[in-house]
Amino acid sequence: MQSPHYRTRREFLATSALGMGSVALAALLRDEQLLAAPHIPRIGRAFDLSAKPPHAPPKAQAMISLFMHGGPSHVDLLDPKPELTRHDGTDYQGDITYSFKNRASKKLLGSPWKFAKHGQCGTEVSELLPHLAGIVDDVAVIRSMHTDINGHEPSIWFMNTGKAQPGRPSLGAWMTYALGSETQDLPAYVVLSDPGGHPVDGVRNWSNGWLPPLYQGTVVRPTEPRILNLDPPEHLRGLRQQQNLELLSDLNRMHLERHPGENDLEARIVSYELAARMQSAAKEALDISSESEATRKLYGLDDDATAEYGTRCLIARRLVERGVRFVQLFLGGQPWDNHNNIRETLPAICRRTDKPSAALVTDLKQRGLLDTTLVHWGGEIGRLPVTEGEGDKCGRDHNGQGYSMWLAGGGIRGGITYGQTDEFGHRAAVDPVTPNDYQATLLHLFGMDHTQLSFHYNGQDQKLTDNRPCRVVNEWLA
Amino acid sequence: MKSTKRLARLVLLCGLSIVGAVARGDEPAASLTFEEHIRPILKAHCFHCHGGEDETEGGLDLRLRRLMADGGDSGPAIMPGKRDESLLYQRVAAGEMPPSQDKLSAADVALIGEWIDAGAATARDEPETLKPGLQITAEERAFWSFQPIPAAVPIPSFSASDRVSTPIDAFLARALRAKELSFSPEADKAVLLKRAYFDLIGLPPSREELAAFLSDDDPQAYELAIDRLLASPHYGERWGRYWLDVAGYADSDGYTSEDRVRPFAYKYRDYVIRSLNADKPFDRFITEQLAGDELTDGNFSQLTPEKIELLSATGFLRMAADGTATGGIDKDLAANQVMADTIKIVSTSLLGLSVGCAQCHDHRYDPIPQTDYYRLRAVFEPAYDWKHWRTPDARLVSMWTDADRAKAAEVDAEAAKVRAEREARQAALIAEAFTKELEKFPEDQRDRLREAFDTAADQRTDEQNKLVELNPKLNISAGVLYQYNPGAAEELKKFDERINAITAKKPFQDFIPVMSEVPGQVPETFLFHRGDHEQPQQSIAPGTLTVCAPPDAVVDIAANSPALPTTGRRLALAHWLTGPGNPLTARVLVNRVWMKHFGRGLVNTPADFGAMGETPSHPELLDWLARDFIEGGWKLKRLHKLIMTSTAYRQASAYDEQAAAVDADNRLYWRMPVQRLDAEAVRDRILATTGVLNLKQFGSPVPVKEDAVGQIVVGPDVPEGSDSPVGHEAFRRSVYVQVRRSQPLAMLHAFDQPVMETNCERRVVSTVATQALMLMNSDFILDQAGYFATRIRKEAGGDPTRQVQTAWQLAFGRSPEPDELKRSLAFLAAQTSVAPPAAPPAAAGAAPPAAAETASPEKVDPLVNLCQVLLSTNEFLYVE
């Protein structure tokens, strides 16, 4: 197996261009200039995934989003509410929109779990997240997120595509469209899916929308085949496919000799070489057998509860280490959607994800990658301060008015909390943050100006933040 | 200025727009005028708060120079001659204005400064009074695309050396000459025929067709070949697909993740294909699509073939995503979204303008006031009628006969009985659940609660309202009954099963999705403040774009046409679109046809003929083509032939370094570009080459499905080991494969087939490793390679040389070159000597394949390998 290589893109191009003429190299390098002006019209020419410089020097170069869809209960995890605890069992006096009426109640439910200050910064975190507690000095906890929509899908669209409307490009699609990828041996935008199946709303979570299809997320499946069409079928594996590709390359070169100067033909020849390399590079990147015992333990691979999610967090690190731009982890179904029996279901999903999530930050930091890798942990909504259902088996209903998430690395200031919900945790009250603010800020970390990053579609300059009023949250920046 | 505009345009074309500091330095400051140079900047960034809306912020109106000099609450905004004393300049230069993040570029700020320094000139005297809103200026009116299409466009003179064979060539040759360029030599005959086949029908010529053409010395042979292709039933499948792109064709509703299937959308697809095959005049084609229903007598109970055609045409207005049949959504919002998307589709496809930008405010760049948007909306309002919304199913017109209807009524009556039983039982179950839920309350509260909930909502006392509000869990509806009594759902399901069994006896009912109005039901259209349907403002009458009318006039559309049962508004719009008063539609159409033939448009932003679009590379040619198209009766086939018989089209695509140095993007057409086949043509060519293509036309789409590993594939399975998969349903042309918005066919999606969110004006071409992987490893390509090998063996027997020769003929329509033959024979030998894999190699960390694959002789067939390689080559994927 090839040893991991972390060549720069230019080195890669220089080597791969040997023996095939330098026109393709020149063409690809010219693409790099495209964004630096003067501009050459791109329409009619192929889009690609080569690395492109952002508007300004970036802090972050890669992002890992641990997407916790379903609505993590912020008042039990990241947003301590002493008033809520004090008023446990009494009726909430304000208005509430419920999603599940039959179990609706106005009775406040104080968190059954204790919060405590951690780290030098003293950020308060629930006892359900002991591993997050260990890294709070590197983490910015955002406590004033709100979508103002209770539904899962619209809120997911809002968080992940900039607008509570289906069909738009996802965050990863925008990132790879804007910045390309640092590696051509691996997909630029990887989605690590859960053995429990797709998240709610399925494949649309990593759609390219109306951006060109090459910017859609590539799903790495939890079982073989890990990437669709990546592996040759058994009977082609090895020498047989290699000879196929050699013949293809020879025929294409003979064809190219008859059609000199055609950049697209050269680029396609290169694309087969990249595909072949991706076959081994992706295998290598997804293979964690070379990881040390200490690393495996760090991610909890020695524990059945954490082994699966830990493996994916570890793979995420391996991918960004190798130049992948954007990695997003999803869960099967809606494990954070704790309508029922929150006293058991919430600890279970925390147990499954807390250690690996924290390990990812720790590991990135140890490897010097945290400075350039933005880690996001969070979902699309939070949960209500009132109880849903009664007794020990009660839960909490959806709450789009206020919720929490955390960020680390990639230019984020560690050890802070930002924003507040009201005293009961229902609504974002101080320094509220919309998904568009969040998106504008993360584009900023990548050196991109959200008002400038656009794609001309349907006669309009479409933008991730959809031209809505929003701001870069400067307080989050290191 | 021109260079700046061009740059801005190019920035947009790049998709990524990065507004940099662009000096407009070479412009002599004295020539700056408010109307030409300053107003467009202020319109894009400032008018929204300072002039465009009812209230002007800070009392400052920037719409006229004199209003600026008058100033607002903070005093005069400009001091002519002194930029530093001008508030306007100070505020924008400091980045304080506009307050949003949409700041002016440094170049715009500089321009404003220069204009003020030079005395803040206007081009002419400013009007004494100003109507509310943004007026359309003479400069805006003078924009190229709003000029009438000239009645005659003189054809440039040319000499014999220009190789002019059609008027098109005369226009192109003039531009080439100016750069000391000329057309490339004519392409060789085989190239030309292949080009024409892919261009017109999206399929390769058969060996016989190619051979006959090559041996035909008749000078008319090429022209006759074009005539044959234009007469082919497959022409409509190719060019119809292009129209389906701009119409946003899909076989599903979209909008929500449920993405309901539209089982009858194909009626519209078939209508398009048939219309193009019939070379229906395009003005008629447009009219039928916008108002086919208004061309009938309005009686849809007995459909004649003619009526079926006209109603199917209106499917055009049913293409937008429509989530209104799905639960759990904001219905009003969804209904208004359908209308917004439809206006987008209509305006981008037929007007080449982004009218949609004016939904929330006056268009920032083009002279399209917000009122124009709602004038256009008013044309469609009676048909959509969002306050009396009809879901997609309610807009289907039945193709039943009277006999069918009678039988159906009988079945319905039977089903209604059971349905009534179900209703009664459901009510009882709800009452039961309520009583049970009530028992959880203290006894002394129960009566009051029951009374409160039993009372009709509008008759409850305040106290009762409070009780209802405080106890949401007692509010048990049919929709939430299952949450209280899981058994209830089971029980009710039994009723549903009975009902289903009865209704299954109904005669099959075929439908057409139709856009039509409910006679007599004419809703008013209101301008929506910021596009929000919950903030209606003044009432708006139907009409078309103001900028296309003479100054101080408007083109109104009659609110009602007494001769028709419907309002006739859409018919009137169609007549305006295809009539002499509209300068846009013919230009937009010929440009789109041109773009498909040459790979780039004369205006390379086919859906944006506005200020942010490209200006035409050959404006007179565009006008000449548009005029000729109109005079020729809006005939597409005539236009194809005109283009395809030109010297320009018949050029070779050989690259020329010298020409490329002058015109790298081939904007002057000094050669025919090499183009990658689009997604459908790639798949169809593969099927045609391997011999399995099923040319069956029309009808229900071939369904798609998710395969075992989650890839979207064509639904019907081809039986394993089948002797002859030829012509299987799974191998129909791509245009007949179901377009499920949430399930794009992997093979087509990889090659850039768009997912229809609204519509697609221009496809992108990408070159990525995932396409390579698709051709290296997907089941689709491996199966096809197998069929190809079978076909070759049948013809060529076992001799490798003959096999290679046959393979080349079938794949490329030519014999292999000696080096290709030699290399291929060596390949076959080398693959033969590869030992079949004994056991899966133990890839570290990788699980063994789920099903133990055996290396059967067919699977390790070197000829199959060769076939797969040929189907993946550049020669196969690109046409010259």
Description:
The complex is a heterodimer of chains A (478) and B (880). Helix content of chain A is 33%, strand content 13%. With 478 residues, chain A is an alpha/beta fold. In chain A, the strands form five sheets. An eight-stranded mixed beta sheet of chain A has the order 6-5-7-1-8-11-4-12, with helices on both faces. Chain A has a two-stranded antiparallel ribbon with strand order 2-3. Chain B is an all-alpha fold. Chain B folds into five domains: 2-135, no CATH class; 189-232, no CATH class; 281-399 and 516-577, no CATH class; 402-505, no CATH class; 676-835 and 853-879, no CATH class. In chain B, a hairpin with a 5-residue loop joins strand 6 (704-706) and strand 7 (712-714). Chain B has a two-stranded antiparallel ribbon with strand order 1-2. In chain B, strands 3-4 form a two-stranded antiparallel ribbon. Chain B has a two-stranded antiparallel sheet with strand order 5-8.
Number of domains of chain A: 1
Number of discrete helical segments of chain A:
13
How far apart, in Å, are the first and last alpha carbons of chain B? 38 Å
Fraction of residues in H or I helices of chain A: 25-40%
Please give the radius of gyration of chain B in angstroms: 32 Å
In round numbers, the mean pLDDT of chain B is 88
The profile of the biggest β sheet of chain A is: 8 strands, mixed
CATH class wording of chain A: Alpha Beta
Q: In the residues of chain B, how many domains can be counted?
A: 5
Strand order across the biggest sheet of chain B? 1-2
Query: What is the helix tally of chain B?
Result: 34
Largest sheet of chain B: 2 strands, antiparallel
Number of DSSP strand runs of chain B:
8
Unreliable runs of chain A, pLDDT <50, ≥5 residues? 1-45
N-C termini distance of chain A: 40 Å
Structural class of chain A: alpha/beta
- Shape field of chain A: globular
β-strand amount of chain A:
5-15%
- H-E string of chain A: HHEHHEEHEHHEEHHHHEHEEEEEEEHEE
Based on Cα principal axes, name the global outline of chain B.
globular
Radius of gyration of chain A, rounded?
23 Å
